[in-house]
Amino acid sequence: MAFHQTNLAWATLLDIGGPGPAADGGGRAGLRERLTRALRTAIRDGRLAEGASVPPSRALAEQLGCSRWVVTEAYGQLVAEGYLSARTGSATRVSWSPESDPPRPDPRRALATPAIRYDIAPGLPDLRAFPRRRWAEAVRAVTGSAVHYDLGPPDPAGHGQLRATLAAYLRRSRGADLRTASVSVCAGVTDGLFRTCRTLRAEGITELAVEDPGWGRLRDAATSAGLRVHPVPVDDDGLRVDDLARTPARAVVVGAAHQFPTGTVLSPDRRAGLVRWAREVDGYVIEDDYDAEFRYDHRPVAVMQGMDARRVLLLGSVSKTLSPALGLGWLVAPAALAPALRAANPVAAAPPVLDQLALAAFIDRGWYDAHLRAARRRFRTRRDLLLTTLAGTLPAARVTGPAAGLHVLLHLPPGTDLPATVRAATSHGLRLTPLTAYTSHPTSAPTALVLGYGNLPDADVPAAIRLLRDALR
Ligand SMILES: Cc1ncc(COP(=O)(O)O)c(C=O)c1O
Predict the structure, then answer these.
(1) 209, β-bridge pairs
(2) Helices in 175-255 by DSSP H: which ranges?
(3) What is the Å distance from ligand 1's center to 453 Cα?
(4) Mean pLDDT, consecutive 10-residue segments, the chain of 473 residues?
(5) pLDDT in the model for residue 114
(6) N or C end: fewer C-beta atoms under 10 angstroms in the chain?
């Protein structure tokens, strides 16, 4: 009976019942968050006084009707933050009071890199949803059906079967024009751009424009291929073609369907302007089609490559649709450039042939389309959940970007200390990326975070956003 009373007292003190409806997204992680927050709040407002001991983890777990892991994790987190102290053989005690200086994190724990529990940096699809069974089935099938010739030295431009399958897919699904262009296989967009830049250099083009803000690895690929890079600003209509025309660039990389990280869709006028510019400078537009399959309000916008297959190259990969671990992508280039592409990349390695054949089988059997349909449904729901949660938890913040892709841009009130927010979030296990990580002029960049929801389970969305709110405080 006495135990039962203690039980009630702790539950009341912490304002936390049994597992109940998991407001923090359910499961053990949600419960751990609730308990950590409840304990922290009770210490901060003095309900748990300095020196008081907290119950042994097993006892509190029993009282709250949760697993012991939830309690030890919560205690561990608060020890790391300096609110509790734990010594082997004695009770865990409250080590801070509202009158004290700010809590001093335990140096031994603080030294360790905090474990990341919620990763909302952009870049990943839902890795838990990788279609393992069908992928394994495709690998098994092609391992059995590949002719012995397929197991010889691979063609650097990719296996003919996958090239044909991709050509059909890109024509049908992305509106690509393959009458005067050819598809080659590469290890992804980054590798495709590297190969393209080496080719451009061999053709006498040394200056390349990239979007600002933009994804740094594309820039790195270009500079390591020996090109000079010129950042060009992006506004609400996408890349500013008038600014591009003022640079010495004769080629430009553009995320026409969904610019990274602003999410802008290149307007029809700008698309036309960009193609005109490429013709005028006798140059090329390199279209980064990295996540264009994910559009949630209507069908994905067709590729620019279809507007002029002699001036626009198209790069894509399965990094956002299946997994970056596969290292499979494509490069669609004017047929006239194909010999130069081969010549400029004499040691380029094609991805493993059996993986190429597996992707071809995966697409040919209709499994890629089915996977994309399911992924679109999943990401649309998750994006809606994220927006609703943000509106409820951070009403002063504003989300921009179309209903597309795997990330949103979250604008925060001016004056928000972004570096401090990112540090505070990291120390609480939340990985965040500020927009400044992608700009060439960080001081003039809008105060915004790039939130990737691709690999954040729905159940973790509320807890992750609450951690973000706490970090902003
Ligand atoms: C803007 C952009 N382009 C392309 C990619 C995909 O690159 P890769 O196919 O080399 O994995 C990414 C991945 O994060 C990206 O953010």
Answers:
(1) 230, 252
(2) 189-202, 216-224, 241-245
(3) 15
(4) 50 64 54 87 90 90 84 86 83 89 69 72 94 98 97 95 98 97 97 98 97 96 97 97 98 97 97 98 98 94 96 98 98 96 92 98 98 98 98 96 96 92 92 93 88 96 96 92
(5) 58
(6) N
Give me ligand 1 centre to Cα 189, in Å: 6
Pairing of strands 118-119, 181-186: unpaired
CB of 213 sitting under 6 A from ligand 1? no
Residues contacting 42, CB < 8 A, separation 6+:
13, 14, 48
Pocket perturbation via mutation, ligand 1, pick of 124, 190, 254, 286 by most ligand atoms within 8 A of CB: 190
DSSP label of 436 = G
The two three-digit tokens of residue 361, written as one number: 């089988």
190 lines ligand 1 (CB under 6 A): yes
CA of 290 to the centre of ligand 1 (A): 6
Helix, strand, or coil (residue 130): coil
451/397 Cα distance (integer angstroms): 13
Instruction: Say what the pTM is.
Output: 0.78
Q: Return the structure tokens found at 69.
A: 């892991």
Torsion angles phi and psi, residue 199, rounded to 5: -70, -45
Shortest CA distance to 352 belongs to which of 165, 184, 167, 158?
158
Is the beta carbon of 327 within 6 A of some atom in ligand 1?
Answer: no
Number of domains in the chain: 3
Cα(457)–Cα(21) distance, integer angstroms: 17
CB-based contacts of 17, cutoff 8 Å, min separation 6: 11, 64
Residue 276 inside a domain? The answer is yes
SS3 457: coil
- Residue located nearest, by CA, to atom 5 of ligand 1: 290
User: Residue type for 347, please?
Assistant: V
Residue-range definition of the domain harbouring residue 105:
2-110
Ligand 1 contact via 288 beta carbon (within 6 Å): yes
273/347 same-domain check: yes
223 and 83 belong to one structural domain: no
* Domain stops at, among 330, 365, 400: 365
Closest residue by Cα to residue 446 from 272, 265, 234: 234
